[in-house]
Specification:
This protein has helices spanning 25-30, 34-50, 55-68, 72-84, 89-99, 108-122, 129-136, 141-164, 173-178. By secondary structure, it is an all-alpha fold. The chain has a domain at 53-178: AhpD-like (Up-down Bundle), CATH 1.20.1290. The longest helix has 24 residues, at 141-164. The protein is globular and about 50 Å long. The protein starts with 24 loop residues before the first helix and ends in a 12-residue tail after the last helix. InterPro entries: AhpD-like, CMD-like. It holds the Pfam family CMD. Residues 34-118 form the Carboxymuconolactone decarboxylase-like domain. This is Carboxymuconolactone decarboxylase family protein.
């Protein structure tokens, strides 16, 4: 059960109602602090619409964060969002293969992005020189910088989701049913 109340636009003063233009549970809980929500949405909007990182690679990185942290909310939302940005079912399925230490059919740039995300989820100073170099071989400086910020941002998002116990909306449950998160399997440590 969620620890923060879910607010609806009608619960908010007129100047804050636009914060729930997408009334998903994450924002409905976060809007308990409108100023924080505005700041959060600013970066989230930039990531989604103005990042130098290719949208498909961005979504793979976010999904990798959701997979490693076993965040049903993040995973389900970005399965749906990722499809809107060009992810295929094979791309989504490859995350499990790569997370187990296997080699999927993804291209080298995507595999490097996933590895960056896995290593960054593991801790603050866990991105190896080899993994950084592999990503840098495929990304320009702006895209590489954005990748690191995006993964760090979504590490924070999944921590908030878990701490506040934000529930997955019924409309996103089919994504979890189609691509369930593992329950017993531990992610591969790189």
């Amino acid at each position: 059960m969620n620890r923060l109340p879910y607010r609806d636009a009608a619960d908010l003063p007129p100047e804050d109602q636009a914060l729930l233009v997408r009334p998903v549970n994450l924002y409905r809980a976060m809007v308990n602090s409108p100023g924080m929500t505005r700041a959060f949405l600013g970066l989230a909007h930039h990531i989604r619409h103005h990042s130098a990182l290719d949208a498909r690679l961005r979504e793979l990185a976010i999904l990798q964060v959701g997979w490693v942290t076993r965040s049903p909310y993040e995973w389900s939302h970005h399965v749906a969002i990722g499809r809107d940005f060009g992810l295929t079912d094979e791309d989504i399925g490859a995350i499990a293969v790569e997370s187990r230490g296997g080699t999927s059919g993804l291209e080298p740039a995507a595999r490097a992005v996933l590895r960056v995300a896995r290593e960054m989820v593991a801790g603050a100073d866990t991105l190896s020189d080899a993994t950084f170099a592999a990503a840098a071989a495929h990304l320009d400086q702006a895209s590489l910088t954005d990748l690191l910020v995006i993964v760090a941002f979504y590490c924070g998002v999944v921590r908030f989701l878990g701490a506040a116990r934000i529930g997955v909306e019924d409309s996103y449950q089919p994504c979890l049913d189609e691509f369930p998160l593992p329950v017993d399997e531990q992610p591969e440590k790189n």
